[in-house]
Specification:
It is built from three helices and no strands. By secondary structure, the chain is mainly alpha-helical.
Length: 78
């Protein structure tokens, strides 16, 4: 239960931010998180995990947008 509440959300947030820094694409990492989470839903977890899949994808997307905003703000300041 701790993985669902603490570890997976933090991992998806970190992946969203790092994914943007590496690929400069906001949609790539949330897509990967969605794909891996959907595969995990049907192989490791049960169908009630689908709610968490949506939440983790949104977390990853928001983290990518936050990093994109920080990077563009820093470029404008310098």
């Amino acid at each position: 239960m701790g993985l669902l509440i603490y570890a997976f959300p933090l991992l998806s947030i970190m992946l969203g931010g790092l994914g943007y820094l590496i690929s400069r694409n906001v949609y790539l990492t949330p897509g990967a998180v969605l794909t891996v989470s959907l595969i995990a839903t049907y192989t490791v977890f049960n169908s009630s995990f689908l709610m968490w899949v949506v939440i983790y994808t949104i977390f990853s997307y928001i983290a990518g947008l936050a990093i994109k905003t920080l990077v563009s703000t820093r470029k404008q300041e310098s």
